[in-house]
Amino acid sequence: MHDLIIRNGSVCDGSGIPARTADVAVDHGVITRVGRVTDRGRTEIDAEGHLVTPGFVDIHTHFDGQVSWDPQLTPSCWHGVTSVVMGNCGVGFAPARPDRHDWLIGLMEGVEDIPGASLSEGITWEWESFPDYLDAVERVPRVLDVAAQVPHGALRAYVMGERGADNEPPTEDDLHRMRALVREGLDAGAIGFSTSRTLTHLAITGAPVPGTFAAEDELFALGGVLGEAGTGVFQLVPLGAGGEKVDDPLGEITWMRRLSAAVGRPVTFGLFQNDNDRDGWRELLQIAEDAVADGADLHPQVAGRPFSVIISLDSTHPFHKRPSYKKIAHLPAPERRVAMRDPALRERILAEQPENADPRSALFPQGYERHFPMTATAPDYEPAADQSFHALARRTGQDPEALIYDFLTSEETSGMIFRPLLGYTEYTLDPIREMLLHPQAVLGLSDAGAHCRLICDASTPTSMLTHWARDRSRGARLPLEYVVRKQTWEPARLYGLRDRGLLRPGYRADVNVIDLDGLSLRSPEFVHDLPAGGGRLIQRADGYAATVVAGEITFRDGEATGALPGRLVRGTRSARTAR
Predict the structure, then answer these.
(1) 171 CB contacts (<8 Å, ≥6 apart)?
(2) All structural domains of the chain
(3) I need a labelling partner for 82 at 20 to 30 A (CA). Which of 14, 104, 344, 497 fits?
(4) What is the pTM of this model?
């Protein structure tokens, strides 16, 4: 008798081959058979009419603090994710000297928009070294697996103190100590090293992330540790990836190419289309492909939908820095909404200019050509240009800002506005589709756990299935088997997690059973469920009949079962590969 049998599902095994009707048998947390299973199971799931896939692997998350207090790691667990990689973009919480806790929190709050008060209350700080951090993470039961990378920002601050935080160059002794700590982290189970070089990543003080201006000797010294250890991925957000203009658009990929070839380890870097260089991404993709011949292994990390913000009275909006609005900003959102409908206050707010605007806002086009109303159900992440508030204002002869104001304050609307920042230059997702089809590209950039008041792209796994494989109407779709592969075997293989990502005997039994016809994203909602009452955007989905982690059912019909089989994943997994 098997521990678990999933019967009669349409098995899309993660390799990219066509789906087939089959049973999946599980014993001791491992898949033991895929095909016709005549034996019985202690537990059985009837998957007839459902899609059966490997659990999804999200390689770009920021759960570094949330792992202290949330065993479910919401919202990722609601979208079929069974393994996550954290410690991205050079920010994290280890290594950490006791007197640097507040500074690390301020760095994470500024870069990733996670409320500092929530981090202060929720993080347990049971560690100083990176190995101690991994041990603390391992002690907390959770619904899914987590893996971590050594973050450059925390590393610099630990070794160099204020000099590191201020982006001063390291001494030879500094480099020696940082190299030793990266190796210590890898030996303890880190699966990579991360850094950030984009000028859009700023601490809460407005200072750039430590490592932003690191010279090649520092980058190659730290990357070289991965080569010496024979394990780990070098992850970064390069200069220009945040939309900022750069003098040498190919400068970053040039050193990345040399680094990967020199150390023999993969480099993955964030890549979006941006308005300042609308076609530059194609050249970067081509260079990544050509670099294979030089022994380099470059993986542009691309998103499944535009990098955007969700505008609402709970998060950010065009009026939040205007003097008259700031006088009522302390009120709960429902009371603010009522107050803002007062004609006199409306007139004052619309007439004012913002105070102390965020300097990063200058990177993105002004005006309302890319502000789109979100419906209360079935959010559309590929709206046409004629759906924007700018287009609506032109058609009706109204002021677009007044239209947005009324949309945000009305009781008859969702009160949420979709505002793409990167990846939507041409009002189409065709460039993202082209990126997703590139042989070197890997799906990532969900930022799950981060940008709490601005986005909820942790739901990307669901929109990959609904938008790209099933519903897209404004262009070509992607094959279902390909979409599943991009979220399972490919990201797992990149990070050396070779015991998962495929539904084949011997692989870890991380499985999703999905009602693909009924799969849908709910509208985002703003909740205050973080420690200290911190607020964030969440987004749930309907259609996940079951999610299985290590052979245990963790979710049924979107609700947690109470099972907590997730664990810390340390280091490179077995060398098993798909054929």
Answers:
(1) none
(2) 56-306+424-494 (3.20.20.140), 310-420 (no CATH)
(3) 104
(4) 0.96
